[in-house]
Amino acid sequence: MAIPLVAGLGIRAWLPELAQMGLEYLPRVALMALLVHVTLYILASLPEFSLLSGAGAVAFAVAFAVIGIVIGYVIGPRGVPIEALGSSRRSRLLNGTRAWAL
Questions:
Q1: How high is the pLDDT of residue 102?
Q2: What is the pLDDT of residue 93?
Q3: Can you give the pLDDT at residue 99?
Q4: Which of the chain's ends, N or C, has fewer CB atoms near its CB within 10 Å?
């Protein structure tokens, strides 16, 4: 994990033109690498996943994540991108207070 970080910082410091060129396609490459990695991990540990799914652990974890996303969507402010909020309002929003009513 540290090797790509150090390589990226070095390229940005010593070869800024190359780093600027990489901004166009590197996010897609990183996303594809992540998807391949997760897919291979799930396929490699499929027997363990099947044991967990029999007990309902995987279904519970997925339901927990989905319920959290739905609750965040329902109680979140409408029509305001999170980047448009000031840091004070963002932290109050993340702490669960009604930042949009203040």
A1: 47
A2: 53
A3: 47
A4: N
Residue 84 near residue 90 (C-beta atoms within 8 A)? no
Percent above pLDDT 90 for the chain: 26
Q: Give alpha helix (H) positions in the chain.
A: 2-14, 16-22, 26-44, 46-55, 57-75, 87-94
pTM across the whole model: 0.47
Neighbouring CB atoms inside 10 A of 30's CB total: 11
Average pLDDT on 11-32 reads 89
Q: Is 79 left (phi over 0), alpha (psi -120 to 50) or beta?
A: left
Whose CA is closest to 99, among 69, 71, 82, 65?
82
Find out whether 53 and 59 touch, Cβ atoms under 8 Å: yes
Q: At what angle do helices 46-55 and 26-44 cross, to 10 degrees?
A: 70
